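hiii, so i know i said id send this last week but things got crazy w the move. better late than never?? heres the sequnce for the chain we talked about at the cafe, plus the structure i predicted for it. fair warning i was half asleep when i ran it
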Amino acid sequence: MCGRFAQYSSRDEYFESLGLKSDEITFDPDPIGRYNVAPGTKVLLLSDRDDELNLDPVYWGYGPEWWDKQPLINARGETAASGRMFKPLWNHGRAIVPADGWFEWKKNKNGKQPYYIYHRNKRPLFFAAIGRQPFGQDHDKEGFVIVTSSSNQGMVDIHDRRPLVIAADAVREWLSAGTTPQRAEEIAHDAAVPERDFTWHQVSDKVGNIHNQGRELVLPTDSKAD
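okay and structure toks below
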């Protein structure tokens, strides 16, 4: 995790949940409308640049200059702040992915069953992310990864990893250039939204095709949420 998620609400809904004001960032009432966001595409990423909040389309995937494999899409929150690969990004490239939920696949006797996971009160989610600054400049070295944490309680039955979801009231501090790397580690631990705040249900296997989009991808395939 995280390999696929939904970012379909409007910017207004995400920003209002963060308590932002109209003079802090550009609001937009039109839905973003992406129900099946895949790696290797540009994703709207929230960051603090020159003491101003910006929402930019940024490539989902990252590899340092010495990396000769496929771009990575996730970073383990337990080691990102100290490891060779991600420490520079943790220190100077913290960002947030506004989202509505994410998808996971669970093995069963017929193969794999996809699930859609979201806040039980249908609140916007804010995935912790790290990447190579500056964002929004469309340079060939730009990119980001989503920070993950271990799953607990019932969610571990779906997948043992999940995106690190930051509480709305901690997002500004997470993004701030004035927040030390050590403080960011504390935020990742203390302001993470717990598993009990989420719910999930089975969805159509059509979500496995990155070309499929539409609200039907997040709707339950049966009447009982799992």
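btw The chain has a mean pLDDT of 91. thought thatd interest u
miss u guys!!
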